[in-house]
């Protein structure tokens, strides 16, 4: 294209863009006047939703931890045997006494004995408390 032709195309393009902007601005002005309360309510709702998502994300995200390191000193001081530790890990996995017995190839009565000893050593009186205490002492992941 020649230089004068390029100049004319640019002028027409700018005029067309200005006209489109003016039409959109007029439409927005009408829309803003006709639905002003609804627009403000939606903007406030979106703001609070974004704030809630941000706060929830900040409060619930956990920093990545390093690899699990078992607290061997606590294991020794509590006197928890290797088999009792296996039973404790199976408890934390949500297995029942029968499932633990099948997994470890021992009798259900032996599992009950190990569980009772774990309760006494951890000074708790239930499965959930035993798992919580074991996790707080870093005995199980």
CA gyration radius, whole angstroms:
34 Å
β-strand amount? under 5%
- Number of helices, counting only DSSP H or I runs of 4 residues or more: 7
- Poorly predicted residue ranges: none
Number of DSSP-assigned strands: 0
Helix content: over 70%
Secondary structure class reads: mainly alpha
Main pleated-sheet profile = none
Provide keyphrases for this structure:
141 residues, mainly alpha
Written overview of the protein:
With 141 residues, the protein is mostly helical. It is 77% helix and 0% strand. It contains seven helices and no strands. Helix 4 (82-92) packs across helix 7 (127-136), helix 5 crosses helix 6 (108-122) and helix 6 (108-122) crosses helix 7. The radius of gyration is 34 Å and the shape is elongated. 10% of the residues are buried. The model has no long low-confidence stretch (mean pLDDT 87).
List the helices and strands and how they pair.
Layout: H1 3-34, H2 36-60, H3 72-78, H4 82-92, H5 97-104, H6 108-122, H7 127-136
Summarize this structure briefly.
With 141 residues, this protein is mainly alpha-helical. The chain has helices spanning 3-34, 36-60, 72-78, 82-92, 97-104, 108-122, 127-136. It is elongated and about 95 Å long.
């Amino acid at each position: 294209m020649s230089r004068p032709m390029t100049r004319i195309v640019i002028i027409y393009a700018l005029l067309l863009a200005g006209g489109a902007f003016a039409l959109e601005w007029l439409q927005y002005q009408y829309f803003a006047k006709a639905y002003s309360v609804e627009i403000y309510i939606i903007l406030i709702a979106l703001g609070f939703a974004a704030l809630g998502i941000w706060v929830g994300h900040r409060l619930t995200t956990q920093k990545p931890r390093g690899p699990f390191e078992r607290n061997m000193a606590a294991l020794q001081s509590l006197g928890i045997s290797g088999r009792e530790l296996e039973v404790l890990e199976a408890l934390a996995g949500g297995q029942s006494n029968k499932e633990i017995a099948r997994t470890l190839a021992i009798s259900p009565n032996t599992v009950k004995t190990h569980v009772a000893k774990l309760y006494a050593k951890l000074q708790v009186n239930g499965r959930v408390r035993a798992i919580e205490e074991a996790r707080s002492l870093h005995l199980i992941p």
